[in-house]
Amino acid sequence: MATIWVSLDRRPPVWDHANHLERAVHCQRILSEPGRDRFREIVEMSAFYPPVVPCAAGLLYRVFPGTPLVSQSVMLAFLGAGLLALFLLGRRLFDAPSGLVAALIFGTAPFVVYSTTNFQLDLPLAAMVIVTLLELARTNAFSRRSWSLILGVTLALGMLVKPPFAIYILPPVALSAWRAARASDRRRRLANLGLALVLGGALSLPWYGPRLFGLPLQMANRAFRLAAEAGQPEPLTAFSLLFYPRALLPMFGLLAGLLFAWGLVALVREPAARGLLWSASLLPFGVFLAIRNKDLRYVLPILPAAALIASAGLRAFAPALRRALTLALIGVAVLQVSAAAFGVPRLARWTALGVPAVYAFPPSPTMWPQREILQVILREAGSRPATVSVVPNYSFFSASNFRYYAARDGLPLTVTRAWDEYPLGVEFIILKTGNQGPAFSIAKAQRIMERLARGDPAFERAFPVIWEGPLPDGSQASVRQRRLTPVAGASPSEVVRRFEESIVPFLGPYARDLDQLRVDLSIDPQALLRGEIRRLRLEARSARVAEFARRGAQLRLQEIRVSLEGVLVNPHRLAASGEIELLAVEKMRIEHLVVTEEDLRAFLAGFRRFGGLTVGLEDGAVSVALALRGPDLAGRLRLSNGTGGAPLTVHAERVSLGGIPLPPLLVHWVFRHYDPTPRLARLPVAVELGQIRVEPHRIVIGTR
Question: Per-domain residue ranges for the chain?
Answer without folding.
Answer: 75-210+227-356, 370-481, 492-701
